[in-house]
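A quick aside before the break. I want you to see a complete sequence-to-structure record at least once, exactly as it would be stored in a machine-readable document. Don't worry about memorizing anything.
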Amino acid sequence: MEVMFKKLFASKVAKQTLFLFVAQIFGMVVGFVSNMLLAKQMGAVDFGIYSLSLAIIIFISIFFEFGYFSSASKMLANNHDINLEKKIFGTSIIIACVLSAFFIVFALVISFLLGKIFSYEIGRIIRISSFISWSFVIPFFMELILKGSNHIGYLAGFNIFSKILFVVFLSLLFIFERLTPLNALLSFSLSYAVAFAIYAYMLQPNFGGFFEILRAINLENKRYGKYIYKGRIFAVSAYNIDRLLIGYFIGSKDVGFYGLANSMATPIISMSAAMGSSVFKTLTNSSKIPFTILKANLAWVLLSFFLTNTLGYLIINFYLKEEYDDVLFLLLLTSVGYCVKALYQPYNAWIVGQGYGKEDQKMSYGMAAINLSGNIIFVPMLGVIGAALSSILASFYYLYASVYFVKREIEER
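That is the input. The structure line, written in tokens, reads:
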């Protein structure tokens, strides 16, 4: 066992995984600390408005990919020609810019309806921020493109740099006493936009042969990408709708509690997701999932569950104190859900890398249906606890379905 782990963590995959994991941890720490400061400086009401506005923007951004990012990522993973890689970068960046323009138009139009559903202030914030909040489409684009091309260092750098920019922007707002829900959201958006511009330039994209590459991406999208997209929007939107339902049925304060528990539990999945990104290209060309990866992932999940709840207990009892006591039990439930999500990361990476788009779509539909129906039923009844339970049930379904599918496919080969 000792020799196995030494070999694993001495490899390029391990170094990339650890680098990306550190970047993700840094991002989560920045997110957690900034949320605490925003909550204190803006007050419960304004922080609730900010949290709900951010949740709405993130929810809208889920839909603006249409399978093109996944298709380009798959092409990059299968490609070994550096010149072709740069052309795929160039075409993908143009596609991302066009989709971002559609996002702006959609956000502008939908903001008027959101103002009636939630409040005028929410609609106003969405409307004004739409001109820069298109950048929330970018993190998913960068993750897929850089993962497919195995530029894990760039992916980690993008995550770190965007978070540093966010801290800088928030600091300036605090110094000049301009810390409002709208300005905080604009700062978040601007940090992604600036980081995207810099790292897109660093990739040295080649915009030549645009239509030829676009045709290839379209073909890949019809065969593969659109199925991943359909499954993703159904699954991810179902997972993100919980905060909107909590805000609508319970209130913005509970949205803050739920967000806090999730930010504490997110590190559980980060190492597993980082490992999945690092081995994505390897799994794309592998007939099975190396057992060492599964063992290392399991060890991390067990350790992180213990650390998350221990540290969460200390933070809530000695820093946040009585006002946040309700978060403690919610953290326990949320961390269970994240453990299950972390366990299926290697299986998901193999399924997607092998091109089983339709199969992944079916499993994602099943997971999303369970999560969505659970949220609709349990959130009005149990509030944030209902949202956490729905996530656990849905994650267990996807873990079972993905393990069963991978084992069946490997046995049939």
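Two observations worth writing down. The mean pLDDT is 85. The chain has 17 helices and no strands. We'll return to this after the break.
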